[in-house]
Amino acid sequence: MTQTLNQQLNLPTGHTLEQVRAITSAAGLTKVRYQQMYQGVKVYGASVVAQTNSFGNMQLSSGQVMTQLEQDLPSMQTRLSPDDAMSKFATSETRENENAELFIYMDDNNQARLVYRLSYFDAGDHPSRPFAIMDANTGEIIDQWEGLAHAEVGTGPGGNAKTGQYEYGTDFGYLDVTQSGNTCTMSNANVKTVNLNGGTSGSTAYSYTCPRNTVKSINGAYSPLNDAHYFGNVVFDMYNDWYNTAPLTFQLTMRVHYSSNYENAFWNGSSMTFGDGQNTFYPLVSLDVSAHEVSHGFTEQNSNLRYSNQSGGINEAFSDMAGEAAEYFMNGSNDWLVGAQIFKGNGSLRYFEDPTQDGRSIGHADDYTSGMDVHYSSGVFNRAFYLLANTNGWGVQKAFEVMVRANQLYWSIDTTFDEGACGVKKASDDAGYNSADVIAAFNTVGVNASCGSTPDPDPVGGELQDGVAVSNLSGASSSETNYYIDVPASASSVSVTISGGSGDADLYVRAGAAPTTSNYDCRPYRWGNNETCNISTSGDTRVYIMLRGYSSFSGVTLKADY
């Protein structure tokens, strides 16, 4: 199979393709992802996806390969060993999880170089996971970034002062522990939970006298150990039951009670670690935060999105999405908030419906700036996910499915917003879903999911003309249909009205940017479908209009006059 692909790509001697994974779509087609190798060394960021049918015929689907590497690399020998490279890079003497992997890397001058991708974990009061790309011959640091990704017999309490106390074995299922005599150990085939008890290292599963664990109440929470162990199993089951994959290639390790008053959680390359919080947070072991950290591991073992730039925003957003999916998997509903249950104040860490509500995140690609914190740039994909999940015929499970498949097949190390959205569209095509909905959701946040072609400026609704009514509009409950009208400088205002039909449609209008349910210039708050918004304008102004279903509606007429 790979030989045929080599011929299709016209790869010269020394170039090979190594299978990474294979996924069969709903249509019965198998998609296979291959990593490009040269002389047995991985080519950084170079992979292709091929499609096979039931007859075994194959065709290239997407991806990229690097050619003419032999011109830049007459020798594959390195002057620095992996240990030499790590010694030059690492500054901590207490490091763990060291990794030095040899790659072929195309630098900014399009020159192929032998490099080590280096990383390690540094525990302590301010844990860190530095990454670097180092020239394997000269020791030059080509690039570097911070990669620490933060944010059935057992019984016992869980929850915190905000959620209220609940009981495992009564309010929720039993804790899945291993019992030996009177000793219960928080370890099973899928999840192991470790009590760091204020320390920063440790890997031994926590044990207690069966069946009830009450260790330990801290900072307003009743037993973070119980919560972490239970939620870790929920996350495993979600990936396994919904998407037929394990979240990680090894047992999930949930490390609880990290350090003292530590207000964060992180994935360090081998385990999920949770602090006990202090003033801002309760212990950080809510279901969505647990799923978030596990899913950083999923991303690292699949697309390996770099934790910086636009790829970092996608990385962070995927983990946020996983939190909502886990909530829906366990409860049948989700709150569209990140970390609300462990946030001591009102509100939450981040918001899906309107990411800008936290005062720092962005909800549109036009607001992205180079070097932006990945937690803030994540708002672009978070809002697209929210819009897709709330599109008629989708829902949280399907919307996260296409994200999971894109992560497994189509995203790679330096994927951009447009490339990432294209991958989601391809995953939707593979599953037989309506990809126009994917394009529409991403178009709303300024991202082109059409894989290189120019999308309709608004494929869901469209442009309105002065005084021209659009009739017989309909939508489901919570559906959002977007329109706009360009108001010339010669006009000073625009009047937008909806009327007629049945059900209850809500009108949202905003000048200069798309409205959300929490950010708009006009929202009449009336029952039924007879609503009007009058908006003042200055100069040439694009006025955006959203028609949202408070309940399902049909037969509605929309008109704008200036």
UniProtKB/TrEMBL annotation:
<dbReference type="InterPro" id="IPR023612">
    <property type="entry name" value="Peptidase_M4"/>
</dbReference>
<dbReference type="Pfam" id="PF02868">
    <property type="entry name" value="Peptidase_M4_C"/>
</dbReference>
<dbReference type="GO" id="GO:0006508">
    <property type="term" value="P:proteolysis"/>
</dbReference>
<dbReference type="InterPro" id="IPR050728">
    <property type="entry name" value="Zinc_Metalloprotease_M4"/>
</dbReference>
<comment type="similarity">
    <text>Belongs to the peptidase M4 family.</text>
</comment>
<feature type="domain" description="FTP">
    <location>
        <begin position="17"/>
        <end position="64"/>
    </location>
</feature>
<feature type="domain" description="Peptidase M4 C-terminal">
    <location>
        <begin position="303"/>
        <end position="447"/>
    </location>
</feature>
<dbReference type="InterPro" id="IPR007280">
    <property type="entry name" value="Peptidase_C_arc/bac"/>
</dbReference>
<dbReference type="InterPro" id="IPR001570">
    <property type="entry name" value="Peptidase_M4_C_domain"/>
</dbReference>
<keyword id="KW-0865">Zymogen</keyword>
<dbReference type="Pfam" id="PF07504">
    <property type="entry name" value="FTP"/>
</dbReference>
<keyword id="KW-0482">Metalloprotease</keyword>
<feature type="active site">
    <location>
        <position position="375"/>
    </location>
</feature>
<dbReference type="GO" id="GO:0046872">
    <property type="term" value="F:metal ion binding"/>
</dbReference>
<protein>
    <recommendedName>
        <fullName>Neutral metalloproteinase</fullName>
        <ecNumber>3.4.24.-</ecNumber>
    </recommendedName>
</protein>
<keyword id="KW-0862">Zinc</keyword>
<dbReference type="InterPro" id="IPR025711">
    <property type="entry name" value="PepSY"/>
</dbReference>
<keyword id="KW-0378">Hydrolase</keyword>
<feature type="domain" description="Peptidase M4">
    <location>
        <begin position="162"/>
        <end position="300"/>
    </location>
</feature>
<feature type="domain" description="Peptidase C-terminal archaeal/bacterial">
    <location>
        <begin position="483"/>
        <end position="548"/>
    </location>
</feature>
<keyword id="KW-0964">Secreted</keyword>
<keyword id="KW-0645">Protease</keyword>
<dbReference type="InterPro" id="IPR027268">
    <property type="entry name" value="Peptidase_M4/M1_CTD_sf"/>
</dbReference>
<dbReference type="Pfam" id="PF03413">
    <property type="entry name" value="PepSY"/>
</dbReference>
<dbReference type="GO" id="GO:0004222">
    <property type="term" value="F:metalloendopeptidase activity"/>
</dbReference>
<keyword id="KW-0479">Metal-binding</keyword>
<dbReference type="Pfam" id="PF01447">
    <property type="entry name" value="Peptidase_M4"/>
</dbReference>
<comment type="function">
    <text>Extracellular zinc metalloprotease.</text>
</comment>
<dbReference type="GO" id="GO:0005576">
    <property type="term" value="C:extracellular region"/>
</dbReference>
<dbReference type="InterPro" id="IPR013856">
    <property type="entry name" value="Peptidase_M4_domain"/>
</dbReference>
<feature type="active site">
    <location>
        <position position="293"/>
    </location>
</feature>
<keyword id="KW-0732">Signal</keyword>
<dbReference type="Pfam" id="PF04151">
    <property type="entry name" value="PPC"/>
</dbReference>
<dbReference type="InterPro" id="IPR011096">
    <property type="entry name" value="FTP_domain"/>
</dbReference>
<feature type="domain" description="PepSY">
    <location>
        <begin position="80"/>
        <end position="145"/>
    </location>
</feature>
